[in-house]
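Local shape tokens:
==================
===
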Amino acid sequence: MTTPFVFQLAGALTDLQGSFADLPLDGPRGWLVVAVLVVSVPVGPWLLRRSVRQIGHGYAMLANRAVGAGEAHQESGVVEVSGTAVSLGETSTGTYSNEPTLVQTWHRVREEEQTDSDGNTTTSRRRLGGGSDALPFLVEDETGSVAVDPSGATLSLSESHYHRSPRDVDHYEGHIAPGDSVYVYGQLREADDPAHAPGEQRTYIGAGDEVGEFVVSDGGQLGTVFDYFLWGTLLAILGLGLTVLVPLLLLFAAEAAFGIPTASWLVDLA
């Protein structure tokens, strides 16, 4: 017995086939559309793979047992600490805040208006660029302290809007300043020469092969894990949609461009 869903699917495929048939794709324009879709086919699976990694990193952080900063020296491998960020004597200046920072990210966004031939105006936002900066620091709590070398870390910082330039460019910055709360998930490292290690401590937290992703965050464990799960879920939804949709569009575009029944069988099957 044919279900209403099958009827709806068949109708949608028929409409899609008709829409492509009405497009002027019998020529170089059609070849270009097909080429773009062919190149886009791997995007969906890549996003799905990225989403699995993102959710996996979030789960690893959630499952790991946090230790006190002063107790981290007794651990090995992956270590997770939360506490207060303390300067090791050097700070940088916030790109837009002009405040002393230990870790920062920043970016610029321009708001642009476009008017079509019918006089309708749409507003879009375009990212112009950004960057990051990180200096070694201490994480300190009631148990003691541990040094962190943030080189190679993923910086998960909440960014704030600081100002807008006369050219409609918004400036955003997120940072961890001395005295701010910080969460670190990384690998305990041992320096061959403490004089060359951050804080001249033989052991410190940094990047390593044993940790899936080295993270420095201002959101605490739960906030950071939530962000990883959220972005992983969004990537999974987008990746799944593209994995299904792009090959489908490719079949209909190829049929319209080359006259080969690459999609008719699918309509007949539905």
Observations:
- The chain has two domains: 1-64+225-270, 75-218.
